[in-house]
Write a structure and sequence with these properties.
Ribosomal Protein S5, domain 2, 2 domains, about 200 residues, 10 strands, alpha+beta, 5 helices, Alpha-Beta Plaits
C-alpha cells in the first residue's frame, strides 16, 4: 500500500473547464470530512467540488451535482488502482461553458486525480496492529524502558487520570507478551489496525 507524504494540488483545463485536484493525506473519515468542508469553503464559487477518500475507517465518494457515477466513482477508482490509502481527493471544477458528456466527465475527473498523483511524493505504508497500553504515572519509566528495549513505536500519548500510549510493533513482536509480566499494573488492549509508514 501507498500514501502521499504531503498535500498537493494540480490543475488541468479541458474544453475551457478548469479542474483543480487537491490531494491531502488523511487517516480517518473525520479528517477527510474536515478537509472536504475546508475546500468547499475555499472554493465556494466553483461549479462542483467532487470528492473521494480511502482511510483507515472506511471510504467514500461524492459527485457533488455532476451526473451520477461521472466524478466521485472514477476518482476513487484511480486511488484504488494506484493502491493509495489514507488520502482524500477533491476535484474542484469551474465550468467553462462546453458540456463534456458522461464519458468526457469520467475521463476529466480521472485525469485530474492521476495528474495530482503524478506530482505527489509517494510513501510506502503497511498495515499494523495498534495496541493501547494504560498505566499509572509512576510506571512511565518502566513503560518507556520496555518500549525502547523492544523497538516499539509510540504513535500517540495521552495524559489524563492515567497515562495511555498507542503503540505498534513494526517487526510484529508480540506486544501482549512483552507486557504480560506487568499484569495488573499495565493494561494492554488491541485497539485497531492502521496503515502506517514502513
Amino acid at each position: 500500500m501507498k500514501t502521499i507524504k504531503k498535500a498537493i494540488q494540480s490543475e488541468i483545463n479541458i474544453k475551457k473547464s478548469q479542474f483543480i485536484c487537491t490531494l491531502v493525506p488523511t487517516k480517518s473519515k473525520a479528517e477527510s470530512k474536515a478537509v472536504i468542508q475546508k475546500l468547499n469553503e475555499q472554493y465556494n464559487d466553483a461549479t462542483h467540488n467532487c470528492t473521494a477518500y480511502i482511510v483507515n475507517d472506511g471510504e467514500g465518494f461524492d459527485d457533488d451535482g455532476e451526473p451520477g457515477g461521472t466524478a466521485g466513482k472514477p476518482m476513487i477508482n484511480v486511488l484504488r488502482k494506484n493502491e493509495l490509502h489514507n488520502v482524500t481527493a477533491v476535484v474542484t471544477r469551474y465550468f467553462g461553458g462546453i458540456k463534456l458528456g458522461a464519458g468526457g466527465l469520467v475521463r476529466a475527473y480521472s485525469k485530474s486525480v492521476m495528474e495530482a498523483i503524478g506530482e505527489a511524493e509517494i510513501l510506502e505504508i503497511e498495515e499494523y496492529d495498534v495496541y493501547e497500553i494504560v498505566f499509572e504515572y509512576s510506571d512511565i519509566k518502566t513503560t518507556d524502558s520496555e518500549v525502547r528495549n523492544n523497538s516499539l513505536d509510540v504513535i500517540n500519548k495521552e495524559y489524563s487520570d492515567k497515562v495511555s500510549y498507542e503503540i505498534v510493533s513494526k517487526d510484529n513482536r508480540d506486544i501482549l507478551k512483552i507486557f504480560e509480566k506487568y499484569s495488573g499494573k499495565i493494561s494492554v488492549n488491541f485497539k485497531n489496525k492502521q496503515f502506517l509508514e514502513k
